[in-house]
Every structure is written in C-alpha cells, then in structure tokens.
Write a structure and sequence with these properties.
By secondary structure, the chain is an alpha/beta fold. The chain has 14 helices and 20 strands. The chain folds into three domains: about 80 residues, NAD(P)-binding Rossmann-like Domain (Rossmann fold, 3-Layer(aba) Sandwich), CATH 3.40.50.720; about 200 residues, Mur-like, catalytic domain (UDP-N-acetylmuramoyl-L-alanine:D-glutamate ligase), CATH 3.40.1190.10; about 140 residues, Alpha-Beta Complex (Protein-Tyrosine Phosphatase, Chain A), CATH 3.90.190.20. The termini are far apart.
Length: about 425
Amino acid sequence: MRIGIVGFGREGKHAYEYWNKNGNTFAVFDKSQDVSTPEGVTLVAGDRYKDDLVQASEHLDLIVRSPGVALWDIEDKLKAPVTTITKEFFDVCPCPIIGITGTKGKGTTATLIYSILKEAKKDVYLVGNIGTPALSVLPNLTQNSLVVYELSSFQLYDLHKSPQTAVCLLVTEDHLDWHKDLEQYHASKGSIFKHQQESDVAIWYTKNETSVELSKLSHAKKKVPYGPSGITRVEHGYFMHGDEMLCPTSEAKLPGAHNQQNICAAIAATWGLASKENILAVIRTFSGLPYHIETVGVHNGITFINDSFAANPTATEVAIASVGQATTLIIGGVDRGLHLEPFVKAIKESRHITNIISFGQERGRIKDTLQEHNISCVVIDGSLKDVFTEALALTKQGGNILFSPGAPSFDMFANYEERGKAFNALVAQYKDGLL
C-alpha cells in the first residue's frame, strides 16, 4: 500500500512502525519542516501541507491522521480513506475496551481504573494520551485482557466504534483551535457512546448537562450514572454504589471534591470487575498524577502547587476551588480564544485568591477580562523565572503559589510536562537559595 502519514510526532512514528510491512511505502505530511523521517520516506512539509495532501491523495491507498491534526476542513476533498491509530486499534483489539473522555479528569480517572483492575490481578493495559501508544500493546493482548483507553476529542472525532464500557466525565468548552465549533467538539465527545451495543455499559456524570445529553446516544442497556443522585455517588461523606457504603471520603488519598467525582467514575467502571477490597485499596493509596494540582514543596512558609496539566480555564477553576488559604494564582499560555469566564467565576467564588499573575501569549486578554469584573492582576511579559520571582514577592508566609495556567504551553514550552518540570526546577532553586 501507499500510505500517507499526517503529522509525524509520537503517534505518527508509531503508525509508521505499525504499517511498515508487506512492502508498504510512505509519505509524511507535516507543517514543520524540521521533521526527521526514516530513510526512504518522502517528507512533504510546510504551511501548504494540507493542500499537498489533497493533491497526493489520489495516489494514496490510505491516509493515517495523527490526533493533533485536524482534517475536517479538507476531508471531502481527499481521495483516499482516512484512519487513525485509535480506529485501527478498535478494529483489531481482541479484548474489551474501557474508554474515558471528558474535558477534565481523564488521566486521573483512567489511571484509577487501571490501578483498581491491576489490584484485582487483571491483565490490563493503560493506553492513549496518559499511557502507552495503543498499537504497541497489541502483541500482548488476549481475549481475557482489558484495555483502559483515555480518549481525547481528537481521537473520538472520526471514531467508528465505541468502547464496551464508555465513561464520560465533565465536558466543558475546550479545543476550539482544533474543532470547527463547540457543537463539533461535543459531537466528537459523543462518539464514545454513539456506536455502543445493547450489551455495553454507559457511565456519565449527572451534574454535567453535556455529559448527560451525550449519554443518550448510547444503546447500552446497562447505564451507570455517577455523581449527585447517581448510582455511584458521594452521600453523607461516604463513597456509595447503589445501597452499598464503601468508605468515608476522608480516607481517599486524592485531595479535592473534583477527585471524589473521578473516584466515583472509577468505581462505576470497575464495579463487577474488581472486588470492593480492590477498590478500597486503591482509593486509600492512589495519590494522583504529576502536575495535577500537585503539592511539590513547602519552603519559608510558602506551599508550591504545580497544576501545569491545566490547559483550559475549567481545569484552573477546579484547582482554585481546591485551595484553602491565601493564594497567588499564576495563569496564562497559548491564546486559543476560549471564554475566560471560568477564571472570573472561580476567583470570585474563592475567598483565598489574593494575587493573580498572568503571563504568556494570553496575558493581555486575561488582564482585560479580569478588569471588566474589577479583578486586578499583574502582567508579566517575560520568562517563567520572571513570573516565579514576582509570585515570591507577592506571597506571604502561610500562603500558596498555585501554578495552574489554564492554557496550553506551546508559546513557551513543548508541552505541559516540560512546563511543569520548569516550575519544579524553580521551586528547587528557591529551596537551595539560588533565587
């Protein structure tokens, strides 16, 4: 086959490794001209790479789209079928898939589910954005395996099958730089339910209108709503499933009300696959993922909280609600044109945000939005070190510095992990007396 791979990042490279057999030939289409391709692979790069793909498509047998690349604007012009790693995996996977999507909490919930099933001695694999690229685990899978798949809207956009167990968390506005509009974003999320069979399981969050509406797309007979009034819920300070009381919420090692809902989603997804004892063991020991509202140190009476994973205002809204003392909030990053009202709402509802620093590409729009609501902030046009230094100057002993950007990192860093590591490095330097 003649195969065109669109985008040659991590998943594009895994696509090449997977399809590099049986005499297949390849061309890579990428916006970046700095992409390095294997010997014998044609590189078509530059700002017109999509136009080039359209022209080349009549000579291709298959196009493999990387998740970060949107092709909806040219898909009606392409002369070859388009697939993705996710679509291929769903076609060939021999075992049940537990899929998790949402705007906030996917990684934590997916890892909780995986940890519970691991505790239950299941042959389970965590794949997707949070884990190993899906196709790489195929050789290990049997009919008795289980796959936990964290699914973004990019992966769900053109998915033609749904997981046997579909979990939809809180869905709010996000990724409008990729999707045509909010309706398309919601429709993509809905793919997690849309193709389910009667024998499947649908799980959704009762407190989120979009999650509730999307769940109606499912044909599954077994439906397990979680959250207020749901089958799995927090009630009178306890985790509950149906009439069964599991344990007090105070025993959960994960902090915050938002994580209580992530735990409820994980309970709903694993009930019947793991024992109550397995579930309780993970609830009492799982402490969270790096850069997810993570306390990374206390020095000179200041607590440093790294929430670099927060890439949209709703995620920062959750982080703000989690703090319980005077806090300097650091926000900013790539401007994707999202509504910034969640920042305003969370700051107004919190009694603990005493200082706000905006930085990055979005800094000016953040300042203007906050000023419209009589909320002042300091704007830093500089490096993260400049931001950190200003935060130290503003924060008193006994307070927090909360790094929860609420925007992507690409204006200054390669990804949220690099951004999170940079913040942690500054905390370490401060502890060592170097700042």
